[in-house]
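Hi W., the LFPHGCPZ complex you wanted:
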Amino acid sequence: MSTIIKLPNAELAWRNERRFLRAMVDQVPDYLFVKDLDCRFVIANEAVARINGFASTDEVIGKTDFDLHDVATAEKFFEIEQRVIQSEQSIIDMEEVVVDAATGREKWLLTTKVAMRDHKNAVVGLVGVSRDITARKKEDLLRDEQAIVVEMIALNSPLDTILDRLVRLIESQLEGVLGSILLVDKTGKYLTHGAAPSLPPAYSQTIDGIAIGPNVGSCGTAAFRRESVIVADIANDPLWTDFRELAALHGLRSCWSTPILSHQGQVLGTFAMYSAAVRAPTDIETSLTQITTRTAAIAIERKVAQDQISYMAHHDMLTGLPNRSLLIDRLTQAMLQTERHNPWVSVVFVDLDNFKFINDSLGHTAGDALLKEVSKRMLDCVRSTDAVMRLGGDEFVILLTDLPENTDAISATLHKLRTAIGEPITIKEQAFHITCSMGVATFPHDGADPETLIANADAAMYKAKDAGRDGFQFFTAEINIRAHERLALLDGIRKGIARSEFHLLYQPQVDLKSGRIFAVEALVRWKHPVLGLITPIHFIPLAEETGLIVALGDWVLKEACRQNKEWQDAGLAPITVCVNVSARQFQDLNWTGRVLQTLEETGLSARCLELELTESLVMRDVDQAVAIMKDLQSVGVGFAIDDFGTGYSSLSALKSLPVSRLKIDQSFVRNLGDDENDRTIAAAVISLGQKLNMRVIAEGVETDEQLAFLRDNRCDEMQGYHFSRPVSSEGIEKMLQAQAPKTPDGTGKRRK
Ligand SMILES: Nc1nc2c(ncn2[C@@H]2O[C@H](COP(=O)(O)O[C@H]3[C@@H](O)[C@H](n4cnc5c(=O)[nH]c(N)nc54)O[C@@H]3COP(=O)(O)O)[C@@H](O)[C@H]2O)c(=O)[nH]1
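Structure:
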């Protein structure tokens, strides 16, 4: 029979209190402990026992941190706790890291340590309380790291660095999970390595380049299905049939992959988490996957956009060839290499001879197709170490590197290029033969920097053009002189406009029935201060090429209108002044406005102005030409087609043109006496123009024979030396006076 010992009430109450206190201390999730002056555990709750890998609190009592942690950590705790004990200064809310002995994982603790006194107020140890703040710390880390990744994206850090950091971030948030990002390659058919900092490199290398398809592990399948693919057990999932052994070799048992989608829903890559355990992802892992795929999508899309911008900045969009900026870069690199290895670098400037004709007559689409085909042929002719670039229009530059120090190898390549480009090209079911002129400048002899080499190759190309086209020319000292002359001429035109060195001559146009002058063509002349009188053939092509024709053309138009108004104001019978318009002027956006403004400023009636457009200019873009011409025609300005017969007019287009006159080109008129073909063409043009209700004028008429033919074929009008060469404004005034009915004062001028 057991003896019941009855405790006094006070003792019972004390024991109960102790029991409750113990229960309270153990049930608190925080770590509570008391240590003596030697920092030895005197009291510890169950949380302390657990984190240190003990089953009961008794096992902790009597131990120090040196029994529980590595020396460095234990020394750190000891030093802090001794300071608290000796200084009696509490440490409040200190953050510290400990390793959870049960799991081996690091934990963040928020710890307070306070000196503990006995009933005599003497310090006998310390009380400690620590709270596990690992989850909060991870959230902070996630937020901070996300901000860093976003900053890296904004600062255009390399994509692989960004993705690597992103995967490491996710791995730092999770236990036992390895991340991987794969990227869709340019073909859209394969996944290539993006980032996998913790996966075994051998595994990453093997899956680099896997296909996107219905049964290609978790990633290939996720990219194919455009949805997450969760494989909880690689060993037993059919999607992994081809990769099962590989995964097992590296201890990978589960893989959850999610496609990375652009904001337009296009698959950019995949993000996968691997685990060594057979399991599905937790909620936290799923939500971290969402964060990762969103961030990765932004980084990848930005990189794609940057690559596109950079590509566009360095390439010609039509042909895909590098452009001028990349050419300078490549040429500089090649020149640096040359200094080291000592072979030559040659710059070949290529210009297509008859491209303008095809572009003008068949339109831009045909022109574009031709340029693409020629680019392809050039690429086929050069080695992979050489480079082909398009500067714009029909101008290309080829960089030939690693050449022996003689011109034979270059000549051989140029012959090859010439032959390849010269093969027929079929556009719109029509075969064209295109030829090219090429100029070569070689480093180090022909220039020490990229710009000089290109300019000298260009100058040599012009020499090849002058020599009859369809050939090539090496840069020489003589070409150098000519190139400088060209530059000087260009500078001269610029200065000549500013210094009023240009003037106009006027060539009468005569009605063949009445023999009367009804119009004059304004023809520009340049009185150069040193070189004397220069005819347009020597400066108009260069002015057209460089765009200076716009300023010069504006001046010609204004001067011609002013002069015609002056003749009228002087009482002479009103005539039309015809002004030549070049393509560069016609394409200038504000040109129509400037014509109208000139008429307003000079006071000339629009009906007394006719603009001469060449046939090829109009046929370049018939719709646009018709629109511009109609705008000006609506106020009374007339239009003539110059050099008719040399271009490539479509008859239906001709019908739609608001044109009042056709000018038969001089080249047909010149041989009217003896060339049956030219006679036939001239007769046909006269008949065609008249059937289209246009008047027809023959230009370049010099002989009686030509005139007789034109009369016999009922040509309406003529212009040429037979009647008069181009003359000064005074010369025209006299002619107009001469043909006017006599006035009482004998001048032929009417009273105003
Ligand atoms: N865009 C601009 N082009 C202009 C301007 N002024 C002239 N030009 C163009 O320059 C080319 C050469 O012109 P030019 O040396 O003035 O020659 C013209 C006439 O002098 C010449 N012509 C006239 N009659 C005869 C002749 O009987 N025989 C003969 N051998 N030549 C003759 O023809 C030229 C006029 O040609 P066109 O304009 O086609 O009527 C020339 O293409 C001019 O157009 C300008 O201000 N702007």
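The CA atoms of residues 419 and 479 lie 25 Å apart.

W.
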